[in-house]
Amino acid sequence: MKAKIKNQAGKPGKEIKFPKQFEEEIRPDLIKRAVFAIQSHNYQPYGASPEAGKRHSAELSRRRRKYRGAYGMGISRVPRKILSRRGTRMNWVGALAPGTVGGRRAHPPKSEKNIEHKINVKERRKAIRSALSASIQKELVEKRGHIINDYPLVVEEKAEKIEKTKDALSMLEKIGLKEDLQRAQIKKIRAGKGKMRGRKYKKKKGPLVVVSKDCELVKAAKNIPGVDVVVVDKVNAELLAPGADAGRATVYTDAALKRLTDEKLFTDNLVKKIKPAEEKK
């Protein structure tokens, strides 16, 4: 697929061809695995206290003529604790054993459990290539809810030198993302109990901007609602397919595409950077 490189004013220039990474077959199953693997690293370990449900003194004898014993009472043999008594008659309630009131859980969650998901290196790279391929398919991007006109979008390398947020916003609007940026500003209250769990509001994801290096544009576009900026070698499946739904509207700089081609990023034959040998003292 080819696209015309736009300048900061939105005017198209020369044509550029997308690298081979964008020719990958779109695999929603692999993208989903890669996204879940990334999200699993943010999970907070949780589990029951090792002493939960075991803090009672709940021994109960079944021996004959044992004071406070339950011999001949016709009750099941579960550990019980004494709540009250009347004379020599005790009132017990089940404790400690699973399934009893005040008892422990049979199989509570363990805090030491490893809840991180793993994914093979080649599968992860293939998932990224698949998400890259989906990011330039206009029908998939529109199906995801983005409002776009001219697509795919490639901007010139000079855009990476933008230092101010208002200039970055102006550039994105001029290349045809004005309506999509307005869509990303809408904030709605979540339906359901998530309101009580630290996620009261919901907002739409806006466009992703992929640059070739750590530049001024990374900071300039940081405060635009819904917009993410990432260096091309740091791209992952979650940024390209939030919620494991492929087809996020993405803006590439021509320098980022050139780096994808030259370094063969996310392929099985990466061009490894050889560090210069340290000078002998």
Describe this structure in words.
- The protein is of the alpha/beta class and 281 residues long.
- It is 26% helix and 16% strand.
- The chain contains 7 helices and 10 strands.
- The chain has helices at 28-40, 121-135, 138-143, 165-184, 216-220, 237-240, 254-263, and strands at residues 2-6, 12-17, 80-86, 89-94, 153-155, 187-189, 201-203, 208-211, 228-231, 250-253.
- The strands form 3 sheets. It has a 6-stranded mixed β-sheet with strand order 2-1-5-10-8-9.
- Helix 1 (28-40) crosses helix 2.
- The longest helix is centred in the middle third of the chain and has 20 residues, at 165-184.
- The radius of gyration is 30 Å and the shape is elongated.
- The two termini are 52 Å apart.
- The mean pLDDT is 92.
* Alpha plus pi helix count: 7
Q: What structural category arises from helix and sheet content? A: alpha/beta
Low-pLDDT residue intervals, each spanning 5 or more residues = none
Approximate strand percentage: 15-25%
SSE ordering: EEHEEHHEHEEEHEHEH
The number of distinct β-strands equals 10
